Amino acid sequence: MRQIPISSSLITFLDDLEYTEAALRAEPLAAELALIFEEEIAAWSEVFRRQRATRRDVIRADALVAVLDASLDRVTVRFGGQALVEANQERKSAAFRRFFPVAPSEFVRGPLRKQCERTRDVIVRELDKLPGDSPLRAFSEPLLTSAKAALAALVARVKTQGEAATVATEILEWKEGVNRLRTTTHAELIKIATAQGLGRAWPEVFFRSADTARSEGDGDAPPAPVDPEPDPT
Known about the structure:
This protein is mainly alpha-helical and about 230 residues long.
């Protein structure tokens, strides 16, 4: 009997559970061992649903952050161009440096959270100090709105990633439980084989082999061997 690698997909774990459950059901001497496999098969749907839900949430959170990042970058670059005009193209002037410590094109390539916080706490505040007729004042609201939206998306993504990590741990524990079940079932099958004189190879038929998995097109790595049970004879 071989263990299923923890890195294998949930589909692979389901396939192996289905195989063993069906094999146990088909053998009267081992049929009572199938019940717990049925329970794990029933539990699999919820495990998979939670995995799929959190992966979907992370993907959607990444997409939202990317879009809002790009939106903030566009308005920031436009503002940077106008600020440079107002500073007579002098990038090192105090009038320009009050907004950008570096070129706007470099500023928007930095960490998004840092960009948002500087936009909110420095750039917008400096803009609000300008005279009401300054062409730059018009950028205050769109910059603040974009920065706040991007920050909120970052916060939401962190929460989503945390939930996904929790679910990943739960899935790992479920997979480890399946492998423990396989090990204990294999031990029970050895006891039956010994009592019935069926030979040492008999328990192996109840577990899907690496060759069987490959023939079915399973792309996961073949199960890893575990220490064999001692020969009871």
